[in-house]
Design goal:
Helix content: 10-25%
Mean pLDDT: 96
Largest sheet: 7 strands, antiparallel
Strand content: 35-45%
Radius of gyration: 14 Å
CATH class: Alpha Beta
Structural class: alpha+beta
Number of helices: 3
């Protein structure tokens, strides 16, 4: 099944990078202001876009503070449903390395390509957030 891969160095601790992807406050700081998330395995996070015209629900499958976050998309947008998002954080020479995979796509449709480009851009917003530059959410609703 198709996968998107991204990797970015971040000048912040693994704990700060983890906070950016595992907590509601962190997710609202760079992704979407309409983020409802609890850092608890088994909980369901919601991410709304364009006044909830698009809503993505993610089951939190794995949380390893400072190391790894895994989500399973359980709805509501058909092309994302069934996909898996994995965030892995490591530390090398004082820099955190974030590796992101959005996998288990059904096809490499034009929507897949568009999402891949968007994730690439969002990696830099996440980097800025974790480094304390506070870019704010890309989607502000």
């Amino acid at each position: 099944m198709p996968e998107m891969h991204h990797q970015i160095p971040i000048d912040a601790s693994p704990e700060k990078v983890y906070e950016a992807i595992a907590t509601q406050e962190g997710l609202r700081g760079w992704w979407t202001g309409d983020s409802i998330a609890e850092a608890q395995v088994g909980s369901v996070a919601e991410f709304g876009f364009y006044n909830r015209k698009f809503l993505f629900r993610m089951r939190i499958d794995e949380l390893q503070p400072g190391k790894r976050v895994v989500w399973a998309c359980i709805g509501d947008y058909d092309e994302w449903k069934g996909t898996r998002l994995t965030w892995e954080i490591s530390r090398t020479d004082g820099t955190s390395i974030l590796r992101f995979v959005h996998g288990d796509w059904q096809s490499t449709s034009s929507f897949f390509a568009s999402c891949n480009s968007t994730w690439g851009m969002l990696m830099y917003r996440l980097k800025d957030y974790a480094e304390g530059k506070n870019p704010g959410p890309y989607w502000k609703e």
